[in-house]
Amino acid sequence: KGTSYLLVVLFQGTTAIAISLANNSFMSCNGNSAVSTTVSSEYLHVIDTRSAGLINFDIRGRSQLQFNDNYVVACSASVHISTLALTSDVNRLELNVVDHSLFELSGNEIRNSSSKDLLVVQFEPSSATISDRSATVIGSNEVSAAIASNSIYVISWIFQGTSSPFTVSGQSSIHVLHTTVSDSTVKGVASMYGVAFSAASLSLTGNSTFQIANTSIVRTSAPIIWAVNCNLQTGLSMINSTLSFADTLLSNCSATSSYAIYVGLLVS
After folding, report:
1. What pLDDT, on the 0 to 100 scale, is given for residue 12?
2. Residues 13, 102, 110, 225: is their CA dihedral positive or negative?
3. Rg (the chain; Cα; Å)
4. 228 falls in which pLDDT band (50, 70, 90)?
5. Which of 109, 132, 146, 243 suits a disulfide with 99, CB 3.0-4.6 Å?
6. Range name among 17-26, 74-83, 147-156, 181-190 with the lowest pLDDT average
7. Is residue 69 scored above 80 in pLDDT?
8. How many CB atoms lie within 10 A of CB 204?
């Protein structure tokens, strides 16, 4: 009765969560699941970091941090369902991936489930730096046979801070690959997103790459469908680097309006 939660993995800190990996270290939160479960009010999150004021992921020295192959199947909740709620109640999440290191969010899935909002990867940093031949990979995340009364996001990478830019430098890369929505419906007035990326600004330098590829939305309905929505509030800076949007598919969808690729550059 009252407020209900289902949490498979909870990172909880009184004021802060700091995960620091260095010198060939490896940490994974892989293969967690929620199956055939109903949460009568509030949330169902497989992995949740929201309880801390400050979250810092610092990955360096050929280290890896993975959140892979987590899934929700045949579940319902009144407010949110997500596999990854990597965010903070006070919107301070810092990501540093340095010196041949890897941060990966891949193979996460919501299937045959319903809620007000469905979010596979909810990642809301205030700042992010990927440098010195490091990589962030977000691959093969999916929503299928699902119903939301408000919105569906597969990848929600939304920067909450407006002063810290997103920087990728020194032959580093970010790849958002194989994002899929299929046979799903948004019944309310909000939207369906394959990839939603929003940052204060994006800086790519030193032979670096930012790629969003193979986003597919098929057999779905929503008021507005965005396969790829990329918004940069104060601009884009590129020096000897690559920004790529490729192989986006909208097929057999119903919407008031739909966008295969939307790129917004709002410079005040």
Report:
1. 65
2. positive
3. 18
4. very high
5. 132
6. 17-26
7. yes
8. 24
Q: How many beta carbons lie within 10 A of that of residue 26, not counting itself?
A: 12
Mean pLDDT of 125-141: 94
Neighbours of 222 (CB within 10 A): 27
Q: With 90 as the cut, is the pLDDT of residue 7 above it? A: no
Token pair 């205030």 in the structure block, residue = 126
First to last CA, the chain: 48
As beta bridge partners, residue 117 has 80, 151
Under DSSP, is residue 178 helix (H, G, I), strand (E, B) or coil? strand
Q: How far apart are CA 100 and CA 109, in angstroms?
A: 28
Hey, how many other C-beta atoms are within 10 angstroms of the C-beta on 20?
14
Task: Report the alpha-carbon angle 95-68-72, nearest 5.
Answer: 115
State how far the alpha carbon of 169 is from the alpha carbons of 59, 79, 158, 248, in Å: 15, 38, 20, 26
Greatest alpha-carbon span in the chain = 57
Rounded distance, CA 191 to CA 172, Å?
32
If phi > 0 it is left, if psi is from -120 to 50 it is alpha, else beta; for residue 223 that is alpha
